[in-house]
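=== RUN LOG ===
request id: a7f3
mode: sequence -> structure
chains: 1
length: 406
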Amino acid sequence: MTDRSEVGSIGVIGGGIVGIALARALAQRGAGEVTVLEKEARLAQHQTGHNSGVVHAGLYYAPGSLKATLCAAGRVSIREFCEEKGLPYREVGKLVVAVDEAELGPLAEIERRSVANRVPDLVRIDDASRLREIEPHVAGVAAVHSPHTAAVDYAAITDAMAQDVRAAGGRILLHSEVTGIHLENGGVRVITPLGEHVFDRLVACAGLQSDVVARLVGADPSPKILPFRGEYWELAPERTDLVNGMIYPVPDPRFPFLGVHFTRGVYGNVHVGPNAVPALAREGYGWLQVSLRDTWESLRWPGAWPLARRHWRMGIDEISGSLIKPLYFRKARRFVPELKMSDLQEKSSAGVRAQAWGRGGELLDDFAVDQVGPVTVLRNAPSPAATSSIAIADYVLSHYLTGSAA
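=== RESULT ===
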């Protein structure tokens, strides 16, 4: 069966927060008939529903980058959306803590970037007693404090956005994995197990599958997606008073990961993590979830061995912490010395980050978009993509779909 949509029709691949935000923007602006194709049985099944729920304020990103620009705009848009829909939005604040003097240099760079990115009300703290006024149980010699870093429920936000899509006349089709894409007659024919669809334009926000979709339309195989699993430990309920808001380490500038940290969620729970270990499947949320095809594709990628040579020590450290609880505990205890092993109650969840990497083994740090005829593909949209989702939608519309936007 072929669904021949009307002129001006646009398909969106992916039912995570970025895909739904884009579909919402298109539908509300009258850009044509909008159809979302999601392979799972529900929305927000993968990265959106497995992240830490943080609304980032923009501390880390290179000034002038897409991440910096869209994070700043996205933070405001997400807050306004939550206010409009009555969804929880808690400004719990974040401390990025230097635990010793060796981290003061990298902390100064975080401060410089934060100022350049106009992070609101950022404060540099060099007094340990002042640190403990904000986080009474923290250890460190200095920090930067972002009071407006917030916690939300991104899955709930995605569901609310989806209601807007439907209210504006758009369709969201579940169980609709895209298995084929063909450019023909100036349009795009998309094949799913439930039928075929013909669109004038197609946008892929496929996250962990973004390079797979890119191959279907003949785009450059690079960048490829390397899945990294991040595991969270839940803090025992009776010990959540150890953390008021969020406590983050000074990140290693060589990696696009922030390190193990403490995050108070929008519903009051506190989780510790995530780490960053190579996943053995694109959607591998545990060590027992293995895809030989996904693993083999990663190993045969030209960038695999340059990446391994460059970062093997970090890989061993992260994998060891995943498998051996005391090692994970030591990373967390650096920031909260009163933490006990038993306070890490259970591994509560895990997420898989779609990290793009190039042929030379380099990990891409910024958002990236490709255009192949009438098809637009988001090639790299890691954190802070959820924070930036509404701004990413606006960016894609204005830069790639101007002929479709009203």
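=== NOTES ===
The longest helix spans residues 66-85.
Confidence is low (pLDDT under 50) at residues 1-7.
=== END ===
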